[in-house]
Sequence to fold (173 residues):
Amino acid sequence: GSLSLREIVLSQSGYWFGFIPKWYLWPQAFGFFIYMCAGVAETNRAPFDFPEAEQELVAGYHTEYGGLRMALFYMGEYQSMAILSALGSTLYFGGWSLPGLDLTRFSGPWPAVLGMTILWAKIAVFMFFYVWVRWTFPRFRYDQLMRLGWKVLLPLSLVNLVYVAAMTLAGKV
Fold:
């Protein structure tokens, strides 16, 4: 019911059925899958690392960048991974909240410190996921990426959009 990240996090506090965290991961599993596939592809990580595959043909961007420029290039890629991880943990895993831990009962700077620690831990899990995907899956070809994007992810996202619209009209969301 809101586009505010704070409201999204606050709506994910609590439990379903008394023991399942009320994260948006559970009702939006398709949305999370699409988000992660698109996030890995957008950050040019394996198996979607086509700029790195260019080095097999003409030495790729390694011939254009070196030293500090190369370090800044990689830092920008890792920064985009961290931003997508922070956004994913906020939208699907409750952000800075943790089921069973009420941050309002602490006083002083401790709610902010605990909230940031929880958020950084969730970001670290997402970053590990990026590394795990890189170790697990082989590199796609361009035609395989186009087929995945147009024939799998786009129809899944449209089905997910219709599902969310129907749930919203039915008043269940």
Notes: The chain has a mean pLDDT of 86. Strands lie at 15-16, 20-21. The longest strand covers residues 15-16.
